[in-house]
Amino acid sequence: xxxxxxxxxxxxxxxxxxxxxxxxxxxxxxxxxxxxxxxxxxxxxxxxxxxxxxxxxxxxxxxxxxxxxxxxxxxxxxxxxxxxxxxxxxxxxxxxxxxxxxxxxxxxxxxxxxxxxxxxxxxxxxxxxxxxxxxxxxxxxxxxxxxxxxxxxxxxxxxxxxxxxxxxxxxxxxxxxxxxxxxxxxxxxxxxxxxxxxxxxxxxxxxxxxxxxxxxxxxxxxxxxxxxxxxxxxxxxxxxxxxxxxxxxxxxxxxxxxxxxxxxxxxxxxxxxxxxxxxxxxxxxxxxxxxxxxxxxxxxxxxxxx
Length: 306
Ligand SMILES: [Zn+2]
Prior knowledge:
By secondary structure, the chain is mainly alpha-helical. Helix content is 37%, strand content 8%.
């Protein structure tokens, strides 16, 4: 998880500004029921493509872009569709996050632009985030409001002052889940040299658990990124051992491999946070796993990492 582009709250996608949108919110508020929303809004290409663009730090999605899950940084589009998800669950908050008491969910935020993020099914499904939304203290959970203004004879309006995900009203809840749109996940997440992720502080630990970031396919995808580079470095070392290349060519090869390491810190690539960890921990993640030519490898890394 890395920070993604923060939405411009004054630039709400058109489908979320229609009178029908406000009627949907009004209906949910009157019923106190977040299940009442028409799900077509969450599949609208204008809404979805805007969120996809933010995942690769753009304002508009280009055909060649590969959008990423906001939480696990997987592309996933080749196996599963990225879904619009509610950071604050719209229809229920899990009992375990509300001291075993039933909670209606944040039904008034069902079409709130700042509450919509993009997730793969593996981070957002029932086995993962689902309707989980833990707070430092469940007593601080926001009380329901009615953001709808107007009404006959006036047109319906929407006052989002207290609905903004990182506005004072909702930040008072002190959520224990990282929202990569408005906060940098870096202080809350780290790795070990094998690619496993670990939470830091209560918020990081809860986020790893709830977004299910320790799942096996993610671990092996991170390991694949690292192992591919180690394999190529070992190839270079073998070629040098066999005398197939001279020292100059060997250093050029090692520098090319080290450039690949630096490319892991590319916000458009999968698992960029893991890449940043590898770069910051080059010695333990890579040098320690190479049997020979460690000094040359360190020198090659210094040469490209200036
Ligand atoms: Zn995901």
